[in-house]
Amino acid sequence: MKSITRRDFMKSSIAAGVASAIPFSRARGANDRIRVGVVGLGGRGTGAHVPSFEKQEGVTVVALSDPDRERMRKAAETIESKYNHSVEQYVDMRRMFDRNDVDVIGNATQNYWHGLSTIWACQAGKHVYVEKPLSHYIWEGRQMVNAARKYRRIVQCGTQHRSEKKFPQAIQWIREGNLGKIKYITAFANKPRASCGKRDTPLPIPDTIDYDRWCGPAKKVPIYRDRLQYDCSFDWNTGDGESCNQGVHEVDVARWCLGEKMLPRRVMSIGGRFLFNDACDVPNTQIIYYDFPTAPVLYEVHNLREGKNSNEAPTFRGERVGVIVDCEGGSVSLYQGIAWDNEGKQVKSFSGGGDHFVNFIDAIRSGRREDLNAEVLEGHLSTAVCHTGNISYRLGDKATKQQMRKAVRDIPLFNEIYDRLLEHLAANEINAGAKTVTLGPWLEIDRKNERFKNNEQANRLVRGFYREPYTVPDLSA
Questions:
Q1: Which of 43, 238, 247, 395 has a C-alpha 20 to 30 A away from that of 131?
Q2: What's CA 441's distance to the chain center, in Å?
Q3: Quick count: other Cβ atoms within 10 Å of Cβ 468?
Q4: Residue 241 domain-assigned (yes or no)
Q5: Quick check: bond before 133 cis, omega within 30?
């Protein structure tokens, strides 16, 4: 495979021909003050966005927004205590976006709010660091890209591995052909989760939360799980499951390694939500086959322990969460930064971290979106890949072992990952032969238009569902 220079590699986040300086209302130097508003004050907003912006010279968080007034109040008190300045607080994020003295938005809302809030911020002239997964729907993600282009904003997706030095080192080494051609990539997340609970009566919403704004684009419905906030990631109405919530990190690295700039040619998923018997509905055990032209990417999720009487998480080749690239002459663990030959001898290692927030601020100061390591287009593509797998799952039906085997039998790699699924279910005493597992259909993808071929049900999930007046605008024109 062709060798790539570091300059070429750092440009890989941007589609060819779009490099351009972003105009600013006033000139900026390295020491100019950048004022930040943070929306979404959960663990990520308070624990990552605020300190990551505040530690940078000339960068100050001046405003906060969250429909949970109590959570916002605590974040404001933390900022005043740690950084010795006050911040303005807004229940309605649009009031914060309207401030002329706010330059940047740190977007740490939940998945289902990412799209609309990022578009609003771009329309208000703000640059945005938005957490992963970028979008709640494929079409929505494309509108986020369109908004960044139309309003000429710098938008970084929070797939922070793009800023860790070991990843481009390893990927370039692989692309140089040191282990031969890539055969396939296995990405995986073995993250034990607990049940989100199942209430008989709706969860009481505290008076300190503006529940209408909290729901935003999602359906405004009673909550029957035990927690309002983080567990919304495991409900299709507001979340996208582990294969997107965590999986976008691994899929992003895998797609980056392959150099793929479009969705896969086809996709299929198998899995289910087992043992928890709770109010959440996304799978806690799932396998997905992403059929890319360069090489297939296989993804597997295990939120259960490795067995019924175990407290340990499952692993794949000794790792709980990671991406392993299998080549003709050996394999590379991209998360560990280690390469082995086919005899298991370590032949290369890669190291080095990075700061995704620093990269974002540097790009704002340069005015060049090509300086971003995870520009919104890259975040959209990786998130959209994850959505395709979930759409296959959501259109699936409970199936017998014979039906599942028939669906995967012509693909040896899919047979292997399916066998691992059966072993995992058996270890947890789940009878996979009793129509307990959901078999999703093979879905053919119109890669150019980011839609599915001849499947209106699937395309309805591409387009998504919004609640008035929180609708994502069509910015494709």
A1: 395
A2: 23
A3: 6
A4: yes
A5: yes
Q: Can you tell me the distance from the alpha carbon of 174 to that of 172, in angstroms, rounded to the nearest whole number?
A: 5
Tokens 């394999």 label which residue? Answer: 331
Tens of pLDDT along 215-267? 999 999 999 999 999 999 999 999 999 999 999 999 999 999 999 999 999 99
Is 239 found in the same domain as 181?
yes
Which pair of tokens denotes residue 145? 């890209």
* Alpha-carbon span 296 to 289, nearest angstrom: 7
The closest of 313, 331, 312, 335 to 322, measured between CA atoms, is: 335
Beta carbons of 329 and 343 less than 8 angstroms apart: no
pLDDT score of 22: 60
Q: pLDDT tens across 264-301, in order? A: 999 999 999 999 999 999 999 999 999 999 999 999 99
Residue that is last in its domain, among 342, 375, 408: 375
Report yes or no on 475 lying in a domain: no
Name the residue with tokens 């916002």.
72
338 and 441 in a single domain? The answer is yes
Cα Dmax for the chain: 66
Beta strands 127-130; 155-157: pairing state: parallel
Q: From CA 354, how far away is CA 352, in angstroms rounded? A: 7
Q: What is the pLDDT of residues 168-185, one digit of tens each?
A: 999 999 999 999 999 999
Tens digit of each residue's pLDDT (9 = 90 or more) over 300-340: 999 999 999 999 999 999 999 999 999 999 999 999 999 99
Q: Are strands 437-439 and 397-399 parallel, antiparallel or unpaired?
A: antiparallel
Residue 201 belongs to what domain range? 166-353+382-463
For 228, half-sphere exposure in the C-beta direction (CA atoms, 13 angstrom radius) is: 17
Q: 99: which 2 tokens?
A: 């401030």
**Encoding tokens for residue 58?**
């000339």
Extract the runs of DSSP E, i.e. beta strands, from 191-342: 266-272, 285-291, 297-302, 321-327, 330-333, 338-341
Q: At what angle do helices 111-123 and 138-150 cross, to 10 degrees?
A: 20
CB 359 within 8 Å of CB 366: no
Average pLDDT, the chain: 94
State pLDDT tens for residues 424-468: 999 999 999 999 999 999 999 999 999 999 999 999 999 999 999
d(CA 464, CA 137) in angstroms, rounded, equals 6
Q: Where are the alpha helices (DSSP H) in 165-324?
A: 166-175, 211-215, 242-245, 247-258
3-class secondary-structure state, position 316: strand
- Residue type present at position 309: N
Q: Whole-angstrom Cα distance, residue 350 to residue 333?
A: 10
Domain count, the chain: 2
